[in-house]
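ugh ok so i messed up the first submission bc i forgot one of the chains. this is the corrected input, ALL of the components this time, i swear. 750 residues overall. if the numbers dont match what u have on ur side tell me asap before i send this to the collaborators (the ones from the other lab, u know who)
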Amino acid sequence: MADAVAGLSAVTKSYRMDDVTVPVLQGIDVEIRPGCFTVLLGPSGSGKTTLLNLVGCLDRPDAGKVVVAGTDIGGLNDDELADFRAENIGFVFQSFNLIPVLSAFENVEYPLVLAGMEPERRRRRVSRLLDAVGLADRARNRPGQLSGGQRQRVAIARALARKPRLVIADEPTANLDSRTGAAIIALMRWMQQKFQISFIFSSHDSGLIKAADDLIVLRDGVIQSVRRKPEEGRAAATATAKREDEVGGAGADAPWAAPRAPLPDTDFSFLQDGTPAAP
Amino acid sequence: MLTTLSLAARNLLRNRRRSLATLLALAIGASSVLLFGGYAADIRATLLTDYVQNGGHLRIQHKDFYLFGSGNPTAYGIAGYEQIVKAIEDDPELKGELRVVSPTLVFGGLAGNYEAGVSRPVIGVGYVADDVARMRQWNEFGLPEINGPYALVGAPDDAVIVGVGLARVLLLCQKLQVPDCPRPSAADGASTEQGAALPDDIAALAAAEPGDAAARGAAAAGEVSLELLATQPRGSPNVAAVKVRAAEDQGFKELDEVTVKLQLDQAQRLVYGKGEPRATAIMVQIEHTARIPQVAARLGQLLERTVPGHALTVMDFRALNPFFDETIALFNTIFGFIFVLIGGIVLFTVGNTMMAAVMERTAEIGTVRAVGLRQSGIRRLFVTEGFLLGCVGAVTGVVTALVLAAFVNALDLSWLPPGSSTPLPLAIRIFGEYGMIAGTAVGLVVIATLSAWLPAWRAARLSIVDALRHA
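and heres the new structure output, hopefully the right one now
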């Protein structure tokens, strides 16, 4: 799987709670296919969020190897990791995690400010993103003035602002009603299909599970199963991906460890088309 | 524009009550420091003005006069002082620097009120009255009047001013109509204002000096007369009958009970008789205190040129009045102590506020770190918030202090310096003390910024995963 957007090899992770060490992930081997809608499933405490944190470069494994977008994150220091996240990974959180003192526009703009993008270009991109998520008219509103669904749409726009290769979404619909959750899933699915950006979720939302290309089931810190849709059934094109139904088994020298070329269509020029229709 | 500064400002406005409480602590701290500093600055200005108005910025005198002159001042008289005064006044380099160059003569003697049968040792000081009057107009700091008009201006040669304490001791208060001047018990027959007439031998000595007969005539006409006895350089006594024009408080009780001020000519006749008149010092008052070192250096050069091989020295008012520096040092120490105290309060207040902000915004810290902000960015954000708190607090404190100072100054209060018997105007001098304002404001801003450093450092070190769990 030379084009895997992320891969974990023999990864273990544990946390200390008082004097007790609690193992969370126990020898995980898995690959995330590019341009896929990947959902992590599993009961509470199975290690979904920990796995997402590792793929999202928010945490480091105790042992094993994590490679994201062709880069072994074990070799990056804290600043390099921050830069890497900024360039390659977008985040959508269960509680939206918007900055309350910034408007919707500024929340989306923030990652671009960190990137040092020129103001006019920044403004254009943010406007298009907000337009794309249907919030052009709420650009000046602060998060407190937006509904839950609107906040999550702002969070999605923020996650996509720097044209990431991978978007990590931890229970993105958990704090939304079912109708709004469905709309958010539709929006993310549309974005994923349009840009072939890889999305990886942890969720119990049946709507999200139905929309998934790949399902990774975790239990007690190990991967119980990986179910992937066949290539021809996926909207996103990843020509080299092959179907896998078994538990991921990539080693330390797995092919996804090699750097890959940037996604071909990540210039967001499509955003000029306006608000997307339902996928 | 989304910058660290604007983000920091918005974060501060997020919890207005907490920010306001912190700002209040900062502002009160800043204004407290400034009010005390302004008070100390006013004391410095008042003392300095008082010294300079009475004795000039610089004095040229015999190099031993300061340490030994009080025993026998006339032994340290400067011969040919007029030549030095002229050289100073004519010096082109000092043009524009000088206000007054004036000789003065200090001598020790006895003053007697023979009518009351009392006498006591005194220190006589001869001045050129017009020069003293001009010196009293020097007011570099724009203070209210400290020393009133000099009573000997336009007065005859035999007119003198005595200290209020001396008037009291010599039982002259009633005649001079000095207010609040206690009188001794009438039971003591030796201490009344109705004493014996001037002894014949003393009267004969006094009669040898021109003008004294007129003074005695004035005394006979009900005016207040006094006999001054001085020792001439060769040891012979000389007496002058003088007319007391006024009693003037000399500030310190010790001085007030011994001071007699008289016209320079009269003092010189009394001390030197028909010999060459001398001065024990030449007072030099300049326009700007800050120019003392330059003027002193130039005076030294002029002395070398005018009186080669001289034994003279140039001393500034601070060297001549150690009390000035001691007072300023005392106030500076108290100021420093208050600043450290306030600084400590600011340190903990701002630190506490920032720590609370870090706790409150933990999830947000995790979010912006996840989005790609480096640890240094987090540190910068919180330190900027501390800096902003410091800036706004310091500015508010400065404005508050200026308003309070204006209010206090409008009350026209006065204070009595330690050891002094003359109340001085009390004011709080903040406006114009730009160094103090800047020092205090910058100091508090630096402290506030440093206070935010530890919380900022801790915020930056938060684990992103742990921080995001706070959402």
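quick check: The helical segments of chain A are 48-55, 78-88, 104-114, 119-132, 148-160, 178-195, 206-211. that seems consistent at least. Chain A has one domain: 6-272.
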